[in-house]
Amino acid sequence: MTPRRELRLNAFQMAAPSHNWAGLWRHPRDTQADYNTLSWWTDMAQTAERGFLDGLFIADVFGLYDVYAGNGDAALLAGAQAPNADPVLAVSAMAHVTRHLGFGITQNLTYDHPFPFARRFTTLDHLTGGRLGWNIVTGYLDSGARGMGLTDSRDHDQRYEAAEDFMAAIYKLWEGSWEDDAVLRDRAAGVFTRPDKVHRVVHDGPFYKVDARHLAEPSPQRTPVLYQAGTSERGVRFAGRHAESVFLNGPTKPAAARAVRAVRDAAREAGRGPYDVLTFLGATVIVAPTSAEARDLRDEYRRYIDAAGQLALVSGWTGIDLSGLSLDDPLAFQRTNAIRSTVENLTRAERPTRVRDLLDFTPAGARAPVLVGSPSEVADELLSWVAETDVDGFNLVRTVMPESLDAVVTLLVPELQARGAFKTAYRDGTLREKLFAGRGPRLSDSHPGAGFRRPAKD
Questions:
Q1: What is the count of structural domains for the chain?
Q2: 179 lies in a domain?
Q3: For the whole model, what pTM was predicted?
Q4: pLDDT of 94-107, one tens digit each?
Q5: Would the N or C end of the chain have less CB density within 10 A of its end CB?
């Protein structure tokens, strides 16, 4: 494989007892209920690094899934992304016990402000040695908005207008406030920082205002690697401008290929290269030494899926209350203020998606491929998806932990390595340098954030 086509793999996690499959925390071998202990995270990070995974991609949602039946009871009962913890706080501990693993942290910008956010992520980029990524999301749950004292979420497209404003402000702080040689640490002269090289940022946008110098000195990457999740038409335009990696879902190869192609086209239209953006497809992988053992695991796992909890998740993702439908009812398209690409994929598929399809390890239920088999069979399927969709890699959805991640590391990764499809060692450098061969630690010159850099001067 060329460096561009080197397969990428992230462990897809969340600081909650259930992530994309509600109820699996009840499995007798599962440890997801320990999500709020530090050792759960540090052990997982070490396992992921042992398998040369590119990163931990940590999902997050701000609010409770309360679209289903008009309340959050089903989500709370099933542990369906509730309770959930702040995904930021365990990262420095995970970085301390690893050397190369990257960390893609989902953070909602709608209820934050660029000034404290910039300091928080600069700090984490320092503490991880430049292994930090930010998954930019705008939020879609009205419950989160109400928790912040608002009546409901911003309109879908307005969320992206606010995101553009947020990005302009934060690029000024990360890229333009401190010159590269501002910090001297000169003990003899008693000068830590040259004040003339730390510049005031003034941003007077429609959603965010800043008038300050950035509080933190430049970190190894300055701007963390920028991820984005959202493949609506407006989300794709945003990704084309800002994202360096995009997380997308697609239950079929044609749907995934369309999503990948849209991102590449958007990058080109924004004046960037189409492969300046890596694309990661969600995938549920159940791998075992033999095909029969993998199918047995799937059958064992499916007995622990919580039906109401799973429908609470899908209702939240789509903005459609599924509580009044029977198992054989098809999902009908509705224009909502939630994840529009999910609504499109579930309601405009070639075969109508029924409610019962959401309650099992199916592409409809997963919103993405479900691959069950031996290491050779799963590797064949992953590489087939790469060849037919042009995707760069996969966010591997957890099922039963830690055995689902252990199986990827001990069974699937060696199979991919034997085919020359996956790395056998990490590159040196920051997360950006690891993900993009030949690229430095900073944003590429073609990225709009690079336009906010301040040239060095004496």
A1: 1
A2: no
A3: 0.94
A4: 999 999 999 999 99
A5: C
CATH number at residue 89: 3.20.20.30
List binding-site positions.
Answer: 60, 106, 156, 160, 232
Query: Does position 157 have pLDDT exceeding 90, yes or no?
Result: no
Task: Give the 3-state secondary structure of the chain.
Answer: CCHHHCCEEEEEEECCCECCCCCHHHCCCCCHHHCCCHHHHHHHHHHHHHCCCCEEEEECCCCCCCCHHHCCHHHHHHCECCCCCCCCCCHHHHHHCCCCCEEEEEEECCCCCHHHHHHHHHHHHHHCCCCEEEEEECCCCHHHHHHCCCCCCCCHHHHHHHHHHHHHHHHHHHHHCECCCCEEEECCCCEEECHHHECCEEEECCCCEEEECCCCCCCCCCCCEEEEECCCHHHHHHHHHHCCEEEECCCCHHHHHHHHHHHHHHHHHCCCCCCCCEEEEEEEEEECCCHHHHHHHHHHHHCCCCHHHHHHHHHHHHCCCCCCCCCCCECCCCCCCCCHHHHHHHHCCCCCCEHHHHHCCCHHHHCCCEEEECHHHHHHHHHHHHHHHCCCEEEEECCCCCHHHHHHHHHHHHHHHHCCCCCCCCCCCCHHHHHCCCCCCCCCCCCHHHHHCCCCCC
Q: Which domain holds residue 300?
A: 8-159+221-309+369-452
Give me the mean pLDDT over the 252-259 stretch: 94
Return the pLDDT at 2.
40
* The pLDDT of residue 3: 40
Please report the pLDDT score of residue 4 as a whole number: 45
Q: What average pLDDT score do residues 8-15 get?
A: 98
Binding residues for FMN: 60, 106, 156, 160, 232
Would the pLDDT of 5 be above 80? Answer: no
Q: Is residue 332 part of a domain?
A: no
**Gap between the Cα atoms of 247 and 242, Å rounded:** 13
Quick check: is 124 in a domain? Answer: yes
Q: Considering Cα of 122, then 123, then 129, then 135, what sign does the dihedral take?
A: negative
